[in-house]
Target: 20380_t:CDS:1
Amino acid sequence: MSKIPLKVDTGKGFALHGTLYLKSDAQSDAVIIICHGLRGSRYAEPVRYIAETLKYHVVSFDFQGNGESGGSTTIGNLDEEAENLHCVISYVRSTLERGILGICGHSKGAAVVLLYASKYNDVPLVINIAARYDYASPDYVQIFFSDKLEKLKKDGYFVLSSGLRDYIVREKDLREREKIDMSCVKNINKEKVRVLTIHGSNDEICPVDGAYIYDKLIGPEPHHKLIVMEGANHSFNEREDELLKTVESWLFENQSWSLDKRISHE
Model:
């Protein structure tokens, strides 16, 4: 396997940093683009494991304000991150001169790929790993950042430290986050796009109920396939191999169907 560093100019005064993983056993000349979750990077699990192990060429990258990429981020900037993904897709097609077989995301990154698909419908295979559906729930901050609530009330913001970056969470960002409406997935064109959703039954971050809502909005098969992994948590700890095999199997099954769709997009 070869790892090639990438730098993608967004045209907005900053660049996105990523990695191209070229595999000798790749099942296609096209690539899969993988997106990380909140407060993560392209090296976070399970994104890194899939990027390195999947039997396809892979591009993974850091969203703006995350990892090594420039720019800034907020807790609910899915629209901005969808445009980051659009920049990377354009770069892969024009600069790397490679087709794109699919886009895959974990957690917040999974919501981003679904949002992207609902807007552009130009990548045939979409993989949603543990995306949140309901962003309006007030429980998120109360459950996961309960120790920060006093500072949030007093100062209007709090700071989260994670990896290479500190994240500022503002009251206004949380209000914007609550407005995210993932019912937009109903706009995914069933003639052009197929979606796989994988969710752990014991997901402690993004409730598994959302996976069933996505299934109702996007399905039925073959337009949408839902797989709930019994006992798996949000990060699929100790279930990475099972997660990888599930992703690969679905890609293998749908690769032939996607070929004509991909050619029409590129």
